[in-house]
């Protein structure tokens, strides 16, 4: 009996000790998968981290300048199961991405596929 109550106390302590950000999650509802678009630019950063991977891409704005797009991807484990490695894309590379854009119109979204300059296409199962 004492052992089971200790397990309960330990479980409660662990649950209370986990920050809200770690327990929170969101759906893909903020992305519009019905209107995919192509974004082409220079990879600035590829964050190989959980719970989501991220890319920051510098994209020409068509007016002689550029803008940064912040693109969310799946977890490291999902990418790894689909052949990705943390160095599959590197800062400075020219890439073309198929993106489910943010519904709010901001410069970002969910990356679905990545095409590298050498023609390699990286995907993770959605497309």
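-> sequence recovered:
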């Amino acid at each position: 009996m004492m052992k089971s109550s200790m397990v309960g106390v330990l479980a409660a302590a662990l649950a209370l000790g986990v920050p809200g950000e770690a327990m929170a999650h969101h759906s893909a509802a903020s992305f519009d998968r019905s209107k995919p678009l192509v974004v082409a630019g220079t990879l600035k950063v590829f964050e190989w981290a959980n719970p989501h991977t991220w890319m920051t891409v510098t994209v020409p704005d068509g007016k002689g300048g550029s803008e940064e797009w912040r693109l969310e991807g799946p977890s490291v484990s999902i990418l790894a199961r689909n052949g990705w490695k943390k160095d599959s894309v590197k800062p400075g590379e020219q890439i073309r991405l198929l993106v489910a854009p943010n519904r709010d119109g901001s410069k970002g979204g969910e990356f679905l596929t990545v095409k590298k300059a050498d023609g390699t296409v990286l995907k993770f199962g959605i497309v």
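The longest helix spans residues 2-17.
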